[in-house]
Design a protein that fits this description.
Elements: E1 2-5, E2 16-19, H1 22-35, H2 44-53, E3 55-56
Antiparallel strand pairs: 1-2, 1-3
Amino acid sequence: MKSFACGDVVPGCEARWVCSTEDEVLAAVSAHATSVHGYTEVPDHLFQSVRGAIVSVN
């Protein structure tokens, strides 16, 4: 399982995900970034920050 908290990259955002794979987390975060944070496309630097903040959970 993989976990990500948006607040680790975007201060003040309380959205969190726990998914089976990193790809599932990235898909969910991408949808969140467009619908909540107003991105039309997730910039590479933000994508890399998200990838670096994803953690494994048991």
